[in-house]
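Page 47, continued from p. 46.
Same chain as before, 380 aa.
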Amino acid sequence: MKISRIAAAGCILLLAVSCAKTAGIKGTITGASDDEVIVKLLEVNSYNVLDTVKTDKSGSFSYKIELAKGKPEFIYLFHKDTKIASLLLEQGDKVSFTADTLGNYSVEGSEESSRLLEVENSFAEFAGHFKDISDRMDAEGLDEAAMRDLQKQITKLYIDYYRKATAYVLSNSHSLTCVPVLFQSVNEYFPIFSQQTDAILFRATADSLKSVYPESRYVQALEKEAARRESILQLNGKLNNASETGYLNLSLPNEQGRKVTLSDVDSKVTLIHFWSASDAAQKMFNLEILLPIYKEFHDKGFEIYAICTDVDKSMWASVVKSQELPWINVCDGLGASSPALLLYRVTQLPCSFVIVDGAITDETITGEAGLRKILQQNLK
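Result:
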């Protein structure tokens, strides 16, 4: 008797553990008796079909999905080609919903799924109004005054929704429902969050969500997008400041990890030199060409800001040390993705630019002779 009780208790425990790793879905779809529901998982940029579930005569069905701890998933239910429900589920959720075959639905049992419904309804309302005004603007026979009025309406509509969406993200920064909001788009050419400064909002949201869901694929995708937008914002800032400095400023780490800013280099002539420490010919160029020139002109006002484009920073630092290169050596370890390469549009190595009195010269550097000529002209 004791053994059977222990066995029974063990079965109950196993069942409880099994249930804890799943989320349960119960739904009723009006107009879909003895029909099929397609269960899809959002894989960041695409859907992955998980299963097809049969409904009974009343249009009801139930389904369980396994979920990893700390990794909520966006689950979408389709009837034929129509999305009838959007769910954001995590372990232990027990969700019930009612829907029709047109995509109208209500949901209970999951706070995140309720938020997702709110988000989608809000955007659908905005998108509907936007399309209505757009269609009226495309109509024939509009006079100039009517067109201006419609332009004002559609601009106000967008600004109001943009502010509403921003407010939602800021007030729900620990909810994964912020991710679809940030990626909302009227069409493929018109994302809601299209301002360069939106990079700040993307980064703040990614950091907030990472503190709650560090392993979520959706958070990782948001982080990548935040980084991409930050790079664009950074590049744009540098381009805007270029007219003030006469060149595109850089701030990269040296061998000790301390950032050295190009605009802080105190010299009349500065050579910006892009190179690779993994290339034997470029290492010989350091010793045979650059080093003798540096020793000859450094005391007269010449400096080198050498940017290594390799990913292996330890290898680069070792080369700098073994060659005893006395100038400024920097490397961000980003390789071909380095913003420095993008800013200066470097497509091959080695590549050099010369700054004279705070502005990049238009003269082409043709090897050792060309560099010596520029230095002799400007450092007398």
